[in-house]
Amino acid sequence: MTGREPRLLPSGRSAILVECVGLDEVLALHDALAADPPEGVVELVPAARTLLVAVDPDVLALESAAGWVRRAARDGPPADGRATRDGRADPTGEASTDDVVIEVDYRGEDLAGLADHLGVSPEHLVARHVAARWRVAFIGFAPGFGYLVADDWPFDVPRLDVARTRVPPGAVGVAGAFSGAYPRESPGGWRLIGSTGVALWDPLADPPALLVPGRGVRFREARA
Q1: For the residues of 79-139, what is the DSSP string, one character each?
Q2: What confidence category does residue 38 fall into, taking pLDDT thresholds of 50, 70 and 90?
Q3: Which of these ranges, 15-19, 204-208, 209-213, has the smallest mean pLDDT?
Q4: pLDDT tens readout for residues 126-169
Q5: Residue 113's domain spans which residues?
Q6: Cα(61)–Cα(200) distance, rounded to whole angstroms?
Q7: One domain, residues 135 and 33
Q8: Where are stretches of biased composition, namely Basic and acidic residues (predicted)?
Q9: CB burial class (10 A; 0-12, 13-18, 19+) of residue 163?
Q10: Average model confidence (pLDDT) for the chain?
Q11: Among 182, 173, 108, which Cα is nearest to 140's?
Q12: Domain count, the chain
């Protein structure tokens, strides 16, 4: 992927933490590993600059897992691969029927101000948000909160100077190169462009989180 040997750190007896240069390398390594995991791999947990590889050490020794990670880092993901719902690569690179579709009411309180800041109309901003094919890069901040990225999202959005003390559940926001939806009420500093009624986190469901790393996401404007 980058030509460099990744730094692998043991994390207990059943996991390896892989340190990456940045999110692009994390996503590429995640796709490469998810494309063909050996028996004994339990979970791949990406973050902004790291990837945790959890294994069953009784099935796959950490030394063997480390060798698999290094080979994947060297060889890279399948050509034009994209991740699907289960985190495996989709060799077509096209939108999948497994993409999560999230309907959004684009009347967020920051929409007009953000559009003005970016030098576009609110309608253009919404159209770009809907047109982008997003993927879940990693989960963080709160259970079920997916940090979404898209190659065709052109904006770098500044966070609020002062975070809100209360963001309602279902609020859809953007910050930096990311988009996301708040699964529950919480503080937050993202610019809110809309809201959704989709259940993003249900502790009684299996799995409880609608969004998982590697899954494709599409936003669709809700009709009045």
Answers
A1: TT-EE-TTS-EETT-S--TTSEEEEEB---TTHHHHHHHHTS-HHHHHHHHHHS-EEEEEE
A2: very high
A3: 204-208
A4: 999 999 999 999 999 889 999 999 999 999 999 999 999 999 99
A5: 100-221
A6: 35
A7: no
A8: 82-91
A9: exposed
A10: 89
A11: 182
A12: 2
Is 91 a member of any domain?
no
pLDDT attached to residue 11: 93
Residue 90 lies in a domain: no
Contact 193, 129 (CB under 8 A): yes
Q: Is 24 helix (H, G, I), strand (E, B) or coil?
A: helix
Question: Residue 163 — φ and ψ, nearest 5°?
Answer: -65, 150
Distance CA 14, CA 6 (A): 19
- To the nearest 10 degrees (0 to 180), the angle between helices 111-118 and 122-131 is 90
pLDDT digits (tens, 9 = 90+) for 111-126: 999 999 999 999 999 9
Q: What is the pTM of this model?
A: 0.84
